[in-house]
Write a structure and sequence with these properties.
Elements (H helix, E strand, L loop, with lengths): L3 E6 L15 H20 L6 E7 L5 H9 L3 E5 L22 H8 L12
Parallel strand pairs: 1-2, 2-3
Length: 121
Amino acid sequence: MRTVAILPVKSFTRGKQRLRHEVSSELREALVEAMLEDVLAALSGTSSIEKVLVVTVAGPTGSAARAIAARLGASIIEDREEGHTAPRSSGSPPRSRTGRSACSWCRAIAPPSIRPRSTPC
């Protein structure tokens, strides 16, 4: 069975916002960077994971995350950053912030024979 790990990464400046009253922005950004490196190293060192995808911010805001992902061998998907997606009330598949449906992301990385049964596509 093929396993793909998908890791969403906020811009470093928006990460760890709950610590903003206690920790400087520079320290929070360094923490986010260190955590990303640790998680990517752990994922890439896991033999049961065939591919690691990092979904991060397009443009200069996500450049640090993209550089780390590339250095550690992860594939990169660029996305706009607009916060959380709005709640869904319809029966249609969820959409990413780029407007691309979750099904199209799923189809891009996994043929139907290996998709989890819980995916709507």
